[in-house]
Specification:
single chain, 310 residues, alpha/beta, six-stranded parallel beta sheet, four-stranded mixed beta sheet, 10 helices, 15% strand, binds guanosine-5'-diphosphate
């Protein structure tokens, strides 16, 4: 069942994104040929163009890290784009991969595919058991369709297409815009600013919600582990297995960045669900463990933030 990446032509679709960049970093240490293509050269939503590019580039393995992503505001403002673009990217790449005989394909979905009230920690079996979170429904539906498409290609053609569901990722290459970003990049930016100004750190909501975080290098490592060792229809959660309250996370970010001001709460902002933790036992049963501890990961993300904002 093991798939050997040695000497293989591996296409990272979406190599400019946070996960795509991490996948390229991880594969640079491997004996394989990394294929990438710039957005200006290839529109991943254009099925004919994708199939033509793949026929010429001849990837043997493909990782789909390309997607239209965004925060709550973008998701609720542009649901058509989130649904159509993501469906088009997935269908184009999987159709192209099938047409040119790709040996192995990994599709990255998201923990957003789980029902809003899924039991915690969320296991893969929770998929399609209840209504989705309405604020990112269009995105989640597209990602669920992508998971189903990997399964359909397995069922109909015996293709070795697999899917994984990463938890909240952070690290180098993250987006730091204050209004649209997720909590980790938002806190890194806010604590950095508070340190410079000697001001308080404003945390949205009560600080009691708990979230799980995984460094993007761990995610890339898990993806390569799955490429090598997993071949099944069931999708696989990719998480650290640990969650932390937003308040404790804020304290940790302050400790890493070196700021000891006060924490104040902005109660006008929503808390969201009280807990979001994935059950990653399927992945750990395949012999994978995360390597980056949260404090070290935040320090790494902060270094990259400083470099990008010099
Ligand atoms: P979620 O995991 O889908 O709820 O998305 P977020 O990463 O945006 O938010 C996670 C939690 O962090 C929520 O309880 C937010 O209220 C809280 N939070 C605290 N401060 C911030 C902030 O500055 N930005 C964001 N996005 N969330 C924050």
């Amino acid at each position: 069942m093991a798939y050997d990446l040695t000497g293989k032509r591996v296409w990272i679709a979406g190599h400019r994104g946070m996960v795509g960049q991490a996948l390229v970093r991880a594969l640079q240490g491997e004996d394989c040929r990394i294929l990438t293509v710039e957005r200006a050269q290839l529109d991943l939503r254009d099925r004919d163009a994708v199939c033509a590019w793949m026929a010429q580039a001849r990837p043997q393995a493909v990782i789909i890290a390309a997607a239209k992503v965004g925060g709550i505001l973008a998701n609720t403002s542009f649901p058509v784009d989130f649904l159509l673009d993501n469906l088009a990217i997935e269908t184009s790449i999987m159709a192209g991969a099938h047409a040119c005989g790709v040996e192995k394909l990994l599709f990255l979905a998201s923990s957003a595919v789980y029902p809003r009230l899924a039991p915690q920690p969320m296991a893969e079996e929770a998929l399609l058991t209840g209504p989705l979170e309405p604020t990112h429904e269009a995105y989640a539906i597209a990602k669920i369709a992508g998971i189903k498409l990997t399964q359909a290609f397995r069922q109909q053609y015996g293709a070795d297409f697999i899917a994984c569901l990463p938890t909240n990722l952070y690290g180098p290459g993250d987006r730091y815009d204050p209004a649209g970003s997720h909590v980790m990049p938002a806190l890194i930016r806010k604590v950095h600013q508070a340190r410079q100004e000697g001001s308080d750190v404003v945390v949205w909501g009560s600080g009691t919600p708990r979230r799980e975080f995984l460094h993007v290098d761990d995610c890339a490592d898990a993806c390569l582990h799955l490429m090598r060792s997993y071949s099944g229809a069931a999708p696989v959660n990719v998480g650290s297995g640990e969650d932390i309250s937003i308040l404790d996370l804020t304290r940790l970010v302050m400790q890493v960045i070196g700021h000891d001001g006060a924490i104040v709460h902005d109660h006008s902002k929503p808390d969201g669900p009280p807990r979001k933790l994935m059950d990653s036992s399927r992945l750990t049963n395949l012999g994978w463990r995360p390597k980056v501890a949260l404090a070290a990961g935040i320090a790494d993300a902060y270094r990259a933030f400083l470099q990008a904002n010099r």
